[in-house]
Amino acid sequence: MTALRIGTRGSALAVAQSTLMRDRLAQVTGRDVELVTVTSEGDRSSASLATLGGTGVFASALREALLADECDLLVHSLKDLPTAQHPGLTLGAIPTRADARDALCARDGLTLDQLPEGSRVGTGSPRRVAQLKSRRQDLEVVDIRGNVDSRLARVGDDLDAVMLSAAGLTRLGLIEQATELFGLGFWPSAPGQGALAIEVRDGDAGPDLAKGLHALDHRETRLLVTAEREVLAGLEAGCAAPIGATAVVDAGLLLLSATVYQPDGTARLSSSHGVTLEWGSLASQLADVHEVAGRVVDELLANGAASLAPLGGSL
Predict the structure, then answer these.
(1) Helices (DSSP H) in the chain: which residue ranges?
(2) What tens digit of pLDDT does each residue of 218-273 get?
(3) For the residues 120-128, what does the mean pLDDT come to?
(4) 157 in active site
(5) Alpha-carbon span 292 to 256, nearest angstrom
(6) Model pLDDT, residue 134
(7) How many C-beta atoms lie closer than 10 Å to residue 20's C-beta?
(8) How far apart are CA 139 and CA 78, in angstroms?
(9) Which residues contact 251 (CB under 8 A, 6 or more apart)?
(10) How far apart are CA 56 and CA 126, in angstroms?
(11) How far apart are CA 81 and CA 89, in angstroms?
(12) How far apart, in Å, do the first and last CA atoms of the chain sit?
């Protein structure tokens, strides 16, 4: 029996994420599962994320490999995926979400408030730039790219701190490098952050892969990240847009909050709405999610979100 093939980027974080899914798929299906490394535009270019555009920059080459039958499934960081479904592909599973928070990794164990005036903080995310400037206009925010290890290596060298995701640090066994974790209530992270997405060819999963996808999929996570990503889609913004969104479920109530930032951090708009998730099919609950996300989007646009950030597909 041939092995199932997982297409993955070659970065340490991508390989760690894919290895996690490889082991779980092998356990569920009883099949051998192997990794196939694919180099994406985002891996080849040293340009900033904002310059590259963000939308699908890490996903395009992987998707081409999947459609060409060079692999059987892909493991993505969900926050890197465009919100529009790619023709011929579908999200076969969204596993249980990891920590969605942002993390500061600073020299000498410092927190954001403890960093000296004028400190240099590295990030490649326009959203994190806006959030940092919103809290500390005195900071010099430095646009950086590269893998997690190379970013951390700059702390205490030419940077005082870097911003990373808690989920990524955890998957690499580096969460102890974090000197501060930012609560999602006042520091919303990227829509879908902390979640992985398994993408497959539409209607082409054999029985073993279908069994594995069913076992890996986590319904609550799918509802939460769908709500967050529908805000991004409704605002016609890419995954590099300065937008944070957080959805939580508490006692059957899904609460969705989203914030659009002016890129320099001097202004922002937020909206929050909730919906009670009635027990029923996934399709009916996704319809509830769509409805509440629509209310958040409408309120943000009505209050002038388009005047704050480049929306309408410009990123």
Answers:
(1) 12-29, 41-44, 49-52, 60-67, 126-135, 148-153, 166-171, 207-216, 219-234, 282-302, 305-308
(2) 999 999 999 999 999 999 887 678 999 999 999 999 999 999 999 999 999 999 99
(3) 95
(4) no
(5) 7
(6) 96
(7) 15
(8) 29
(9) none
(10) 16
(11) 12
(12) 44
- For residue 168, the one-letter residue type is G
Neighbours of 108 (CB within 10 A): 11
Closest CA to 315 of 218, 234, 241: 241
Strand partners, 162: 105, 122
Give the strand pairing for 4-8 and 73-77. Answer: parallel
Spatial contact of 258 and 286, defined as CB atoms under 8 Å apart: no
The answer to whether 96 and 116 are in contact (CB under 8 A) is no
Structure tokens of 121?
């903080």
- The pLDDT value given to residue 175: 97
pLDDT on residue 315 = 42
Question: Each residue of 99-111: pLDDT tens digit?
Answer: 999 999 999 999 9
Predicted confidence (pLDDT) at residue 314 exceeds the cutoff of 60? no
Decide if pLDDT at 46 tops 80: no
Contacts (Cβ under 8 Å, ≥6 apart) of 158:
120
How many angstroms separate the CA atoms of 259 and 190, rounded? Answer: 10
**Residues present in the chain in total:** 315
Could you say which of 32, 43, 69, 80 is catalytic?
80
